[in-house]
Every structure is written in C-alpha cells, then in structure tokens.
Amino acid sequence: MKKCNIANFKVTKNVIIIEFSYQDYDIPNNTVFYLEKEGKQICLGRLVKNDKKENDNTINAKITFELELKEYNEVKIKMQCNGKIIDMQILNNKNEEILEEDNHYKIFTKKICYRNRKKHINNK
Fold first, then answer.
1. Confidence band (pLDDT; 50, 70, 90) for 2?
2. Is the pLDDT confidence value at 103 over 50?
3. Tally of structural domains, the chain
C-alpha cells in the first residue's frame, strides 16, 4: 500500500478541492490517481509532479481532486500505474503518521464534516 498526505482542503461554493502530496522513487507519466465510491470511479485527480529528484532520490507530486460538495459516505483514493491498481493510505501530514484512530484531519462545511480515515475519506 502506498501512502499520500493530505496537503489542503478548499471549499468554493458547491465544490470541495482536496490536495494530496505524494512522494516516490518513480512516478511514471502514465500514473493515474482517482477517487472511488462503492467500487466505482467518481473523480480523476490532476497530477502535477516535480521531476527534480530530492536528496534521497525521491520525486514529489501533488494530486488535486475537485468534488461536488455533498455527502459521499466513503471515498477511497486509488493509484493506477502500469496496469496495477493500488490502494492509497491517507496520512495526516508528511512528517508523522498519527496512530490514534480518533485523531483525524477534519473539515466542517455546510453542516458536513469530512474526515480522513487512513483508507478513505468520509462524511460520518
């Protein structure tokens, strides 16, 4: 399982924009990130990668999703690369993993609370 980090939430009128940061040793150009609800792809991510390698030979990328602002219950982020589909684990920040299950990144908007649950984002 690969890991990505929540970088930002933005809300504009009827759209929520979720930005993730992702780091790996190789991010091929055919890599696709998408959100999945109940086994169905609902939103493609926009991938912007920095091809400059860091000191540890990793590459940084930003993935942005724009969703209609409504209740989704459970949404997973997936990566498809070279014919493989990989579930992404969602971390709260790029420097440390929060191990306590009740300590989640949250955003409240229009009476909806979005939460990070490591393997998905939900409204509960």
1. confident
2. no
3. 1
Tens-place pLDDT, residues 63-78: 999 988 776 677 888 9
Provide the residue range defining the domain that includes 74: 2-122
DSSP lists the bridge partners of residue 2 as 88
pTM of the model: 0.75
What CATH number should be reported for the domain holding residue 71? 2.60.40.10
99 three-state secondary structure:
coil
How far apart, in Å, are the Cα atoms of 71 and each of 26, 48, 93, 104? Answer: 34, 27, 24, 18
| Cα 51 from Cα 59, distance rounded (Å) | 6
Structure tokens belonging to residue 120 = 């998905």
Q: Supply angle C-alpha 7, 9, 14, rounded to 5.
A: 155
Q: What is the identity of the amino acid at 84?
A: K
DSSP secondary structure string for all residues of 8-76: EEEEETTEEEEEEEEEES---TT-EEEEEETTEEEEEPEEEEE-S--TTS-EEEEEEEEEESS--SEEE
